[in-house]
Structure formats: structure tokens, C-alpha cells
Automatic annotation (TrEMBL):
Enzyme class name: transferase
SMART domains tied to this protein: HATPase_c, HisKA, PAS
Keywords (A to Z) from UniProt: ATP-binding, Kinase, Membrane, Nucleotide-binding, Phosphoprotein, Transferase, Transmembrane, Transmembrane helix, Two-component regulatory system
E.C. designation(s): 2.7.13.3
Gene Ontology molecular function: ATP binding; phosphorelay sensor kinase activity
Gene3D superfamilies with a match to the protein in the record: 1.10.287.130, Histidine kinase-like ATPase, C-terminal domain, PAS domain
Domain Histidine kinase: 237-447
Biological source species: Bremerella volcania
Swiss-Prot/TrEMBL catalytic activity: ATP + protein L-histidine = ADP + protein N-phospho-L-histidine
Protein name per the record: histidine kinase
Amino acid sequence: MFRTQSVATGKGYRLSITGLLLLSLAALVITIWMMADFLREQAIVEELTRQLPRDSTAVAKDLASELRWQFRLSILVVLNLIATGLALILLSRAYRSSQESLRDIKALAGHILSSMDQTVITTDRNSIVTSINRHGMDLLGAKLDCIGKHVNELSSDLDLDQFISDWQTEKSSSVTRDFHVGKAGRTVRATCQSLNDFGGKEIGKVLQLRDVTERVLMEERMRRMERYMGLGSLAAGLHHEIRNPLAALSLHVQLLEEQLEESADSEDVQPMLAVIKSEMTRIGEVLERFRDFASMDNLKLEQVNLVQLIQRQVDLAIPQANQQGIAVQFALPESPLPNLTADLLRLEQTLLNLFLNAMQAMPHGGRLSVSVTQSSDALRVEISDTGSGIPEDLRDQVFDAYFTTKSDGTGLGLALCDKIVRQHNGSLDFFSSKDGTTFVMTLPIQQVSLPSD
């Protein structure tokens, strides 16, 4: 179905042709009636001619001749009216045939547009909707009465009128804009072009909307993969180059402590040595986390019950959540889920990290919601918070190593979570708005092979 404005011009044409046919028929009936009168008059004239004297028959014969000519002219009028009626009938049939062809063409165009996997909307020059296909009505949740309304009334999430105004400055198909629709964070990409008549005059606009959520997520994953390339070898080199001097430094600090114990100045030096030792310990911990992040070790695969695993992490998070005034909700699946072939410890680490991040996003309380569902070949875990969301300008950097907005954070938490999920051939994505953030972890049920990284 392709919704358009209704046009009633065809009805007017049909009424006009029907009226002409009725007039022709009425004229034909009147003409035949007049011919019948002519025939009666001719019969009367002939009867009078036979009764008149011979010297008076000339005028009667002229009258009879004139009546015969009038009868012949009436025959021509009848033939003309019959030809006109036939012409109108042929014209009506031709009009009906053209209307049927036009309806077939419109139906075909409508079927084609309705079968497209993108939204097609046409507007007039004042941005009033003149047509919309079925995909557009489903995507935007528009109703049947949307035809004839302003384009911005189709959806509160899409400022299409502003997009059309911006497009007017360049009028190029390369001008696009991405909109985020709904709580699920679907990404809709809009393009625009002119709608012209046969004479090339602009009569409106054609808007095309496509759901590019999966494409955007794939592009983001590719960018992440590019950022991770070479990180493993770099981590190994840094770990080797820093760890060895750090170990030597730690040894010499220990020897220095032993020598200073016999010195009278040891009381002044010991606090400084304690600071040095503390900082070396911290550097060592950072190196270990960096190594864990860039590690190429194989997973220790085993059968994992994901629901039980999540429940354990929820139980661990509840005490801290209660202290912050956070309500934790875990929506259990309605039917049993299959086990995963996964690394139990790494999935525990991922889930706990996501829980902690969600609670840190709600310092003044809120709600932490966890759910797990099954698709055809994967399990999907959603972890949602009711915080203030991730700022738009920071969303592309969330999974970057060493990116953090916390004063005491290392910036490796989410990057490590993403790496662990990718090692399981899964994906970790998120949707964020001013009402909160939802992280979505998708894990395949069947572990086919391990990724190299």
C-alpha cells in the first residue's frame, strides 16, 4: 500500500461523457419524433392533393416536396446523432481503458515503493506530506491520516523540516543526516532530493529514510578493530621495556633501605622511599592491566549457565547498590536458555565491570535493569541504567583504551570488556540518551572458533 492524496478528477470526466451521451440520445429521440410528424404531414398533404382541383395541386406538390427534403435532412441528423453517440461510446471506452492503465501503473509503483526496505515520503513545496509508503508508516509509527499534514508531525524524534531547510542550501544528494529514533537508539539516515514535474519545475521534495543502525554499529566495530591493530605487540614491548627496569629499580630501593637502616638520617629518607615504593607498585598494577587488555592468551572454554552467572554478579552488586539507593532488577527468562561455551572468569569480569559502570552513572540513586533473551543463534544481555546518559561527543570514544571521564579511572574497563566479548565471537554495543544508557552484550550459543584478536 502506498498512501497518497485522493484525486476525484476521473469522476468529473465520467459525468461529462454520460451527460453528452444522454443529450445525444435525447436529440435522437426528438429527431425521430419529428420524422414521424413529417411522415404524417406527407400523408395528409398527399390526401389533400388527391381531393384538390387540378389547378390547385401545384402548391400542394411544392409543400409535399419540401416535406420530403425536410425528412431527408432529418435522416441526416439521425445518422449524425448516431455517429456522435458511437464516437462518445468509443471515447468513453478509451477513457476507461486509459484510467485502468493509469491505475495499474499507480498500483505497480505503489507495490514497488511499498516493497522497498526504506522510507519514501513526498511533500509539496510547503513541506506538506503528499504520500508515504508502508515502510515509512511502520518506521515512524504514522497513522493513515498523516497525508496532508506537516512533515514534522510524522515523528517527534525527526526534525525533517529543519533537514529540508539545510538541504536547500546545497541541494545535493550527498547531504545526509542521522537521527536517533526511539528508546532502543535506532539510527535513521535521511536524504532528500527535488520532486519535479514533466516540465522540470520543482513541485516538492522526496525524502528517503533508511534504518542504518546495524551499518553504523558495524562501522564502529571496524573502527575499534583498526584502533586495536598492533596494540598487542606494542603492549608486549612496553611491558618488557618497562617491567625489567622497574624490577631493577625495586631491587635497588630495597638495598638502599637496608643500608639506610644503619644511617642516622633514615627517619627523613624512609617516607620518601615509601612514596617511591607505592608509585612503583601502582605502575606495576597498570602494566598488569595493560597486559591483560592486550593479552593474546586463549580462552579457557567450558559450559556456562549464563542466567546463573548473571544472578551471581547481581548478588555481588546488590550491597553496593543498596548503599547508593539503586534498585536492581533482573528479568529472568520465561524458558530455560542453552548453556554457552565460554570463559567463565572473563565473562564474570565483563559483567561485573558493566554493573559497576552502570552504578557509577547513578550516584544519586536510580534503577539498574538486567535482562537476557535468546535469538536464533545467540544470547543477548541488556544492562540498563537511569543515569544522565553518555554525552553525544564522547560516544565514539567509549571503547577506546585509556579513555575515561573519572578522576581515578584507568580507562581500560570498557575496552577490556569489549575485547573479551570479541574473543567470544560476540559484540558489545550501547544505546544512550538523556534517560540513561543500555549496554547490549551478544554472545553466540555455539563457539565455532576463537578470533585471533
